[in-house]
Amino acid sequence: MQEELNQFERNDVWELVPCPPSQTIIGTKWVFRNKLDDQGNIVRNKAKLVAQGYCQEEGIGYDETFAPVARLEAIRILLACSCFKNFKLYQMDVKSAFLNSIIQEEVYVKQPPGFEKFSRPNDVYKHKKALYGLKQAPRAWYDRLSSFLLQNGFIRGKVDTTLFVFKKGQDCLLVQIYVDDIIFGATNDSLCKKFSKLMQGEFEMSMMEELNFFLGLQIKQCQEGIYISQSKYTKELLKKFGIEEGRTVSTPMATNVKIDKDEKGKSVDESKYRGMIGSLLYLTASRPDILHVVCLCARFQSNPKESHMSAVKRIFRYLKGTIQYGLFYPKNENFSLKGYSDSDYAGNIDDRKSTSDHVNF
């Protein structure tokens, strides 16, 4: 907790002032969590001071809040690109990123619980910079980081605005941003070292290290290519939904069963069903083999029946036997884009609609 408050002092985040009579004073609270590595081991304990931003009023306490973040598809494209260009990807993160971003609005917060000034107990902190929990904090941080990169010769992506490109002669440096996590790689390794030095000169950063765990994706970079999986996340899901025991199945969906509305079936808990579907949808980032059946089961979230729950549990039993499955991006392969499409022609039992889709390699 003291380390967190020391960050506030170093970044000149706030100043203690008498409580203004006409301003809304936002509460603060401490949030504690353990930071885990890709194996689930505790790396370090973290304490974060968070503003209770739900007290803010739109138009008074904040205006624009939208901040773009990298999509998982963009991360996968970057991995494929690094294989084709044959360069290694690295990762860094900005320590207490939001504390570096300047906010335009007047924001006052209460003194942190347990760290009140005895000589000035009724005073409040006026913010010069953003704090986690404030509605405008993500937007302010994105503006701060993107303007810094643009000033240093980077070009922002037109489709993906979290991608920044730096070119020097024939060499190219790619930088992808997800809030305070940054992954990057270059055709010339010296560009990566210069970028790391540039960031450390402006922000307090973690050490540059090889990319191995990002947004729940376990990433292994080797001579043959890049392998990504979500085995840690899969194990957590099996434990969460109590499907650690029991037999496994070889396919995610029974080929002889058609899933329909089943209006005469017995209803099941909607919130649990939706939770299972949402968890599985995130898993499809590295498991396209379950994508079709998960999307099929997702159609019945408004009124799930026992037959639908059985189909979802079958997916989990399939995952139990295939925990280590993932995606492999081989090096020195042809980088041509191939697309396939298909349709099942009136395959829906309820309304005879066709399901069509496409896949790109």
TrEMBL record:
PANTHER family linked: CYSTEINE-RICH RLK (RECEPTOR-LIKE PROTEIN KINASE) 8, GAG-POL-RELATED RETROTRANSPOSON
Domain Reverse transcriptase Ty1/copia-type as annotated: residue spans: 11-254
Designated name of the protein: Reverse transcriptase Ty1/copia-type domain-containing protein
Lineage summary: Eukaryota, Viridiplantae, Streptophyta, Embryophyta, Tracheophyta
InterPro entries, A to Z: DNA/RNA_pol_sf, RVT_2
Extent of the signal sequence: none
Protein's organism: Rehmannia glutinosa (Chinese foxglove)
